[in-house]
């Protein structure tokens, strides 16, 4: 059915307003109708008309709009009227059908009600029973939950009472995980929410207190552990040194028995076996140190034993609480603070007395940290331990530098060095880098040896000052072993009879002991310090000791001028013994350094005390020359123009002969043969020079052949003495005698020339080179001018005028004349 279109509102506005409406009123009316159709608020329009005082126009417009709508409704109803009538008819026919259906439904309902009544009653009973069963099942579940919960809580209480915190936390965690979400009652839930954090907080407080107590105990236990570990390292080093000593004795015995170049086992040949023995004996893992510390603590009863269980328990509990990372940081920071406190060096106690405790505390600290690193399950990481170790090394290096710079005693420095090296050996087994500590020891090596040299220099001066320089008497065999054999200065392998008079004085064994102690102290400082080949360094310092301390002190003793002939002779004898002692010292240093003797003895070594030895010999020779000069004062009684030659020579020669014979009888038992030979040569050469001086002296104006014959007898006396000493020399008798007689050669050639029948042969080059090669032209010219034959006396020419001239005198005059011409 077609619907009619409604008339336009603008048309209504235009038609209804009358011809008298203005254009403004029409626009206002159009706006009002548009607002009504759009359902907008009409308040503004109402306010505006009341404000203008024309409400009638608004009412008129609203009535007009209502009339227009009524007209529109009428048009619509007219358009749909037939449809509406047809729909009403349909509804009436449908109403009759509904009434019939309603009566049919009522009949069906009555039949259904009568049939389903008993069934509905049964269903109601079933539903009630089912509700009761559900309630009972819920109650049972709640009871079972409560039972499990109370059982867990009871077990947690038992574990808590028994201090089993981990089991307590597990029970609480199980209750929180399994039972708290299904708590049957809010009260129980609130109780759990309150108790579970309280139990965890209690466990954390308790385990934190235990950890704090452990931190206090571990400090004392670490110090004890460090002392035990360093002590075991010291014992192992002692065993190693004993093994080396036995090997040195065997090597030395084999070396001196065979005297051959057969290779003997050395320390370096056995370095691998030593390492194996060390590993088998003590250098295993830290369990040995911990076991030794535990055994020591149990035996002492006062020292706390090392127990890491509280630490591991605390770590486990914190891990269970989910605070693992926080506990790691807490543990690291506390241990770092504890290590820092261990670094404090008391200014009230000397470091020499506290250094063992200081280093033992640090050693025990890092042994514990190594153990925790390997068995702590990640409690501390290797970088953290390295940080702690670097801090400790830096502090220890600083402390050592400071303390070493203050020390002025070599023994104190050695004691601390030994303990630091033991600390290095101990911690090196736990793979800690100890090179900086060894570098500090090497850095102060020169200072230690300077202090040691100063001490030895003082000891050497005291030993020389206390020596009377008399031959040392040894009454017992142990004295001989202690003063001779221990330094290998014996001249024979046969033990002498006692009492035994040694060829040296008491200062020799004292100097040997001082030097041997220096070598051993030097090697003790150098060894175990990371230096492999220490022999060259020890040798350098030993040469300094011998050259500066011993040689310098002996030179000062000689220069003091307080020595007599016997004392100077004893000092010279001592130098010969010290030469053998120096060889022993270098061998001893080589053996202690692990160097084979065949290598240490290779090459010629200059005697370190050569200056003092030469000075001693020069002093002895000078004293003997002075003594000879005293005897030569007797030459004033020589008659240079004697009528007959003295039958037994001059008096001075016999005195000198007796003195020299007495001197040799004493010196041959103590002086080394080369020194004795050199001294005798010097003395005889001095006698020869003095005889030449007699002839050249201004006091001797003339001398005759009888005086020369007397000097010839004197020379024969001295030559006889030289021949008698030939048995002292290891060479042939002839060579020994000739060497001493050569010292008298100048005086002998002069006497031979003066006693020659043809002195003019001196001018023959061949004869002069063969028989007079020691004589000087000027000396011969001066002496021959004084020489006169026995018949050539003052005024003797008056009695012998016209007689034939003596051929010897003629040759002598010719010699004098030609020597004057030559000069």
From TrEMBL:
InterPro entries: EXOC6/Sec15 (IPR007225), EXOC6/Sec15_C (IPR046361), EXOC6/Sec15_C_dom1 (IPR042045), EXOC6_Sec15_N (IPR048359), EXOC6PINT-1/Sec15/Tip20_C_dom2 (IPR042044). Keywords: Cytoplasm, Exocytosis, Transport. Residues 1-26, 239-270 are annotated as: Disordered. This is Exocyst complex component. Residues 62-230 form the Exocyst complex component EXOC6/Sec15 N-terminal domain. It is found in: Cytoplasm, Cytosol. It comes from the Eukaryota. It comes from Ensete ventricosum (Abyssinian banana). Residues 436-786 form the Exocyst complex subunit EXOC6/Sec15 C-terminal domain. Its main location: cytoplasm.
